[in-house]
Request: fold
Amino acid sequence: MKTILLPTDFSSNSVNAIHYAVNLFKDESCHFHLLNIQKASSFLSDNLMTMQSSTTIYKTLVDVSKRSLKNIINAIKTKYNNRLHEFSAVVDYDNFVDAVNQMVDKENVDLIIMGTKGASNVEKVIFGSNTVRVMQRCNTPVLAIPYGCKYKKIDKIAFTSNYSTQYKKSELETLIDIANKNNSKIDVLHLETEEYLSRKQVNNRSFLDECFKKVPHEFIDLENADIFNTVQH
Reply:
């Protein structure tokens, strides 16, 4: 059984990521852990404003979050009625990344799926700050679901690489697993910055070719350009 962690702040964005997750793994036995993390700053502010005991405020915050998590789980169960899926709700009062890492270690999580913030008109904000921190400080693969992205069958996957990173096979297992389950093709996108590849880049490209040998894949070289616009195109 696959173990998947679903951090949520109850926003429509994070709930959408939960729906994406249960659709993506609809044919696989999974245990989904829905995790809500209370911010220390809001907890302290409430404490000062109400002058109640910290224990009472903490219990109130946790109880409200638990009810909200149970409501989401009940809605998911009612909508999909998938006997392959199990759910549990967890509320933590901690630093966001620390709470995620603790859950990963405790439950032996295979994959983290979480929403991202939408792009701003002022600047291209692809990922929210929490998503970025989890990617940087957690060793478990993270699947980030863009704002408003609804699940549909994954026919093609774009894998961007400069061929400078020397991957381990274990780091690519989740990608290959998703590709195999969806009969997806992987397009390896390389933005050319030099006229020729170095020996290291050639070796790393060959390694990717070997790792993807059981998955339909193609290597595509793109002229040096803005990475966001090129990938989006």
User: Anything to note?
Assistant: The CA atoms of residues 47 and 54 lie 6 Å apart. Residues 54-80 form the longest helix (27 residues). Strands lie at 2-7, 30-38, 85-93, 111-115, 142-145, 156-160, 185-191, 217-222.
